[in-house]
Amino acid sequence: MSSLDSDKTLAGIGSILLIFPFVNIIGVILVYVGIKGLSDYYKESTIYHDALRGFIFLIIAAAAIAVAAPVFVFSGMFSIVALGPFGIGFGLISFLAILAVVFIFYILAAMNLRKAFNTLAQKSSEHMFETAGLLLFLGAIMTVVLVGFLLIFVAWIIATIAFFSIKIPTYTVPQTVQPLQASRCCPNCGAPQNANAIFCSHCGRQLPPA
Fold this sequence. Notes:
By secondary structure, the protein is mainly alpha-helical. The protein has helices spanning 3-17, 24-42, 45-83, 85-124, 128-141, 147-165; strands spanning 184-185, 192-193.
């Protein structure tokens, strides 16, 4: 298996795993490794750097949700006990602030992944990457109305197809034409002649039968 073949396969499998909640961290790693290999293959470092920034922002957003959720629950319960009705408002404000932070980092992740996909589309001539990047960006913006999650789901499916559709160039070894070997000479001028020649290519005299 060639380097390009293995890199696009890793990225394609990772894109599939990104769709499923419990294995998406594995998907992130596989896509990252695959894109790093594709970046090296096409000798375009911006693909790798943009994707790296995108995944970092994505991980920060996911970590913010994972850490903030239990903190929000316990602090909200404490606020209600300590502040009474005012605690509900405090908890709601805290929750909205956390969502705002997650939303910002998710937008940044989608912007950088879109840039990486656009460059990859130019280098690989697989323009489905552009569609996947656009849907990721629109999906990140529209997560506030839940439709965005569907767009993100479709985006990673398209990215999966795009990774597996990258064409591996085939190289053919050029055939060299061997010069005709002279097997006899003209009796008139002495110029070398092909075995099947009837007239001398140099002086034009008729050659005797071979």
